[in-house]
Amino acid sequence: MTRRFKGALQALLAGLGAVIAFPALVLAAGDRYSGGRDDGFTLGAQLLALVPGVIGDAARGAYYGHTLALFETGATVHFGSYFSKRGARVHARAGIGAYCVMGLVDLGSGVRIASRVSITSGLYYHGSAAGGIGGEDNVTRVVIGANTWIGEGAVIGADVGADCIVGMGSVVIQTVPDRSTVIGNPARRVPSAA
């Protein structure tokens, strides 16, 4: 495939994605008049999560490029996945698999997230085992460092450093240092072989 043809195809997909995303962007824009609620943003995000294929990826990219705090070129959000918080930041080349829910998160460049991953808005957003009350007062940004891989079905509630691997099904409740591999529930660091 020639470079010119590939560029034209990418421009066509981006244009189709923008057309599909337009009604959702109108919904999100209506939030200015809703007294600080993000109902339109959430509805638009969930509707666009259901658009399949590369056109759906382009529509989600167009939507989040206009609604999130940051959504850099080359980032991808696949089918069934959506962001629940406008303040999320997604850096270049970050990829989010199918059926993921992202809260208030900062995804570093090159982050790869498998399917069915949940990144909450901190450990206490939905309350705690000790009976704490959850909600908007307990929102905390979760930072995932550059080039980190997060495995299938993981639940992340705390920061994960750069160049890390989070094993499938792991539940991260403590900060993970750079260049670490963690597995399990709760996630524990795997000692390096060196």
Automatic annotation (TrEMBL):
InterPro entries reported in the protein's UniProt record: Trans_hexapeptide_repeat, Trimer_LpxA-like_sf
Give the family per the record: Belongs to the transferase hexapeptide repeat family.
PANTHER family referenced in this protein's UniProt entry, alphabetically? ACETYLTRANSFERASE, UDP-N-ACETYLBACILLOSAMINE N-ACETYLTRANSFERASE
Q: What is this protein called?
A: Transferase
Cite the source lineage: Bacteria, Pseudomonadati, Pseudomonadota, Gammaproteobacteria, Acidiferrobacterales
